[in-house]
Design a protein that fits this description.
Elements (H helix, E strand, L loop, with lengths): L1 E5 L7 H15 L3 E5 L6 H4 L15 H11 L2 H25 L4 E5 L6 H8 L4 E5 L14 H14 L2 E4 L2 H9 L7 E3 L6 H6 L4 H6 L6 E8 L6 H11 L6 E8 L3 H10 L6 E5 L3 H9 L3 E3 L10 H8 L3 E5 L2 H4 L9 E3 L4 H12 L2 H18 L2 H18 L1
Parallel strand pairs: 1-2, 1-3, 3-4, 4-5, 5-6, 7-8, 7-10, 8-9, 10-11, 11-12
Helix pairs in contact: 1-17, 4-5, 10-15, 13-16
Length: 396
């Protein structure tokens, strides 16, 4: 099959990893993918090189303009520009869609962006829409023109033939907002099995940070408010007296980092908790390999954190919050521990349990790895997309 894959992201963070991984998975399955990106953006090139700190991603040419607009333009004007981007889509994709050189139109949903789906349906294309977030749910950027965005969203969800969401939370929301019953499906994020299996043990990282002889608790990613890393630092401080061998490694950077540094100093945990700073995505798995326990203290309610799959794929015992996207993946006490969101006592108790039971850590990690490498790889996700696309072509 031939896919036209359209998106409107800068491809600097997890979105770039998702796009690049899906494209490569479909190509491995023998399909041809034409990627339509904003001018100057190439997620296939950028995804593996971006640091965990998105703000430090190196950009050039016109991509500098996109980054400036994304970071510094006031929200109301940014959303007006998002609406205006439909004109760009019409000019760039219109001729391609008119020629019908591909079989399936595959779009990554973006707020206010409707022209691609509208033109694809007008010219008779099967439309597959991938949804990673919906209007009105907390996200990093504030939303201003919510009613307008909801109107666009409802229209697009009604037009799409198949909608793929990354979590059951999003599936429920899409169905409430115009998605057709029976046409909305969940395909969570995933890992590249070959990369996971090729990653070396974390001995060099443990040696670099003097971690030999310690039990390492870790987190990797973009430090955002909803991650509640403050709760993780507090929990580690609380259990440190009972388990003096514990160390906490936070890999990445983000808007809350200054507050975390101040919390570490105030709690006198400088010898226990350390921040690595941003590291290239290509090295993140090596840092995860150096961890014994991986923790997501909290998350947003809708997303499917790629790092969760990396934790599990690397065979680590995972503690994660009680959210629908997490329960899509983890079965509590079978391949991970699920704790109540925002409950420091529950997080502290889960940490104590794993710190005191190395056999349980190994058992949970082994089951987690088996599940992820068996069910949640980009190759498996590609096969699911392949089946949905084939069914659409057969109907058309």
């Amino acid at each position: 099959m031939k896919f036209l894959y359209h998106h409107r992201t800068l491809g600097r963070g997890g979105e770039g990893v998702h796009i690049a991984s899906m494209v490569r998975a479909l190509e491995t399955l023998g399909h041809t993918i034409q990627v339509a990106s904003p001018s100057g953006v190439d997620p296939l090139r950028m995804a593996g090189a971006s640091p965990v700190d998105k703000g430090q991603a190196q950009v050039r040419g016109i991509t500098r303009i996109w980054k400036f607009v994304s970071c510094w333009v006031p929200d109301i004007f940014f959303e007006i520009l998002e609406i205006g981007y439909n004109v760009v889509v019409m000019i760039r994709l219109g001729p391609i869609l008119l020629r019908r050189g591909q079989d399936v139109y595959y779009e990554r949903y973006a707020f206010f962006m409707s022209m691609g789906v509208f033109l694809a349906k007008f010219f008779g294309w099967p439309v597959l829409l991938e949804v990673n977030e919906v209007v009105g749910v907390q996200r990093a950027r504030n939303q201003v023109l919510v009613p307008v965005s909801q109107w666009f969203e409802k229209m697009i969800f009604k037009k799409a033939d198949v909608i793929l969401t990354v979590s059951s939370f999003l599936k429920e929301e899409v169905l409430k907002r115009g998605g057709k019953p029976g046409a909305v499906h969940v395909i969570p994020n995933a890992v590249d099995a070959q990369v996971i299996e090729a990653t070396e043990r974390g001995d060099q990282i443990r040696k670099r940070y003097h971690l030999n002889g310690h039990t390492v608790v870790g987190f990797a990613g973009w430090f955002d408010t909803w991650d509640r890393l403050d709760l993780l630092i507090k929990a580690v401080g609380d259990v440190h007296k009972e388990f003096p061998h514990i160390r906490l490694m936070l890999v990445g950077n983000g808007p809350v980092v200054d507050g975390l540094i101040e919390q570490i100093r105030a709690s006198k945990l400088e010898e226990v908790v350390f921040l690595t700073g941003p590291v290239p995505r290509s090295q993140v798995l090596s840092y995860i390999a150096a961890m014994d326990i991986c923790v997501l203290p909290d998350s947003n309610v809708f997303g499917s954190p790629i790092v969760l799959f990396e934790f599990m794929g690397m065979g680590k015992a995972v503690i994660a919050p009680d959210l629908l996207p997490i329960r899509d993946i983890i079965e509590d006490r079978k391949d991970g521990l699920i704790v109540q969101c925002g409950n420091p006592g529950a997080l502290r108790q889960a940490l104590s349990l794993l710190l005191g039971d190395s056999a349980l850590r190994m058992e949970l990690g082994s089951r987690a790895r088996k599940k992820v490498l068996g069910q949640h790889t980009w190759h498996e996700n590609g096969k699911k997309v392949e089946r949905f696309a084939s069914a659409l072509i057969d109907k058309s």
